[in-house]
Automatic annotation (TrEMBL):
Protein name as it appears in the record: Glycosyl transferase family 1 domain-containing protein
SUPFAM superfamilies, per database record: UDP-Glycosyltransferase/glycogen phosphorylase
Listed CDD domains: GT4_PimA-like (cd03801)
Superkingdom: Bacteria
Length: 403
């Protein structure tokens, strides 16, 4: 019965600028789902904007973020409320805050102060006497251009202001926590809580593996390497291509590819040696991970956990987070070192070439081909949901919220 659930009767408001309903593994949907399953009445307030800004430098097309809102709301049991931005510049949004929703909520959970309007939501919530939970994602400052430098300064200013109106901070990797601490003198309670992937969607499927490898013309003895997501310049795609070829593997690039990167690949005579796929929704992405022997990431991604759940070997950069959390995990192989980064797990130093380190890591991961596949459930959403409900239960008790 609903009244026996730990969060029964609690009204929770989750606030974020972005919510791609086509990607239900993201925190917005999974937080809302977990808390609703715990008995809470959950409202997810987001903008109508895509996570791809229409003026992005890579020339990527904006998505339709709301196309599965009704389906997810029905399936997971939470309410999605979208509002059109008054103004948007990259990830910075000006949106009229949901004052009535804030007033009627017992707890307000905001994601990322860099989005601007989330700071205003936190301020209003605190003025109304509501506990405020804050998720901090940013890992560091970016300085690709003057615009990025200005953007980084504005983001730190927003984080500084917002930090005085939160009761606690959650972050996913070590660099997140360090960035928050260097943005404000305030020290609210902080918790490192890595995200997870939905094991109902991401698991090994032998039939899909055979089918997709046939479609990609990959032989049974060949090693298939996948690189997925936003295929932008900062991901060092050309280095990945060179490394996969040097390791004598077959590489598939799946995602929205920056045209400038493809031109580099073509100009270097590498285009005939790789496969390409467009952006894949979660179910098809799970199929690609099942088909792949190795999945490579050059920056931190939620998809670490999605690929690991299918039993693929996952090649990721070595960093403090890797050393603290992933070192020794059978599904993960690290490359390079934390010294590669100017922003840990996100932005590489100028002049760094990843090819040699990636080649070595891909060869190490590929050596496991033929071994029984075992999905890593260390970061499954079932575990994350349990933790989140327990966290909110303790917050409810601390603030004596009866719902």
């Amino acid at each position: 019965m609903n009244d026996q659930k730990p969060l029964s009767g609690l009204n929770l408001l989750l606030v974020s600028a972005f919510f791609e309903s086509e990607m239900p593994s993201l925190r917005e949907a999974q937080y809302a789902r977990a808390l609703a399953e715990g008995g809470a009445n959950v409202t997810l307030f987001v903008s109508t904007g895509s996570n791809v800004w229409k003026y992005n430098r890579a020339g990527l097309k904006p998505t339709d973020p709301a196309q599965r809102d009704e389906q997810l709301s029905s399936e997971f049991g939470f309410t999605v409320v979208r509002r059109r931005p008054i103004l948007r510049v990259s990830d910075l949004f000006v949106i009229w805050p949901p004052i009535r929703l804030i007033w009627s909520s017992d707890i307000v959970h905001v994601i990322e102060f860099r989005q601007g309007f989330t700071v205003l939501v936190a301020i209003i919530a605190k003025l109304f006497g509501k506990p405020v939970v804050y998720d901090h994602e940013q890992r560091g400052d970016r300085h690709y251009t003057v615009f990025h430098t200005i953007d980084s300064v504005v983001r730190r200013a927003l984080i500084f202001i917002g930090s005085f109106f939160v009761d606690c901070v959650r972050h996913t990797v070590i660099a997140n926590g360090q960035h928050f601490k260097t943005s404000t003198p305030r020290r609210p309670p902080m918790f490192m809580r890595p995200l997870g992937a939905d094991e109902a969607r991401f698991s090994f499927d032998a039939d899909r593996r055979r089918t997709l490898r046939t479609e990609l013309n990959v032989g049974p003895s060949e090693v298939l390497v996948a690189f997925t997501g936003k295929l932008t310049e900062d991901k060092r795609i050309v280095d990945v291509v060179k490394a996969a070829i040097a390791a004598e593997t077959v590489l598939v690039l799946a995602g929205r590819l920056d045209s400038r990167i493809w031109n580099q690949i073509v100009s270097q005579g590498l285009s005939e040696k790789i496969r390409r796929m467009e952006w894949l929704p979660p179910d098809q992405l799970a199929g690609l991970y099942s088909a792949s022997d190795v999945v490579v990431f050059t920056t931190f991604s939620l998809s670490y956990w999605e690929a690991a759940l299918t039993g693929a070997k996952v090649v990721v950069p070595k960093s403090r987070f890797f050393d603290a959390v992933l070192a020794g995990e059978d599904n993960f192989v690290g490359f390079g070192s934390a010294d590669m980064f100017s922003v840990e797990d996100e932005q590489y130093k100028a002049g760094i070439d990843l090819t040699e380190a990636l080649t070595s890591a891909i060869r190490e991961a590929a050596a496991a081909k033929g071994s029984p596949r075992k999905g890593s459930k260390m970061f499954s959403w079932s575990r994350r949901r349990t933790e989140l409900v327990e966290f909110y239960g303790s917050l409810r008790a601390e603030h004596r919220l009866n719902g």
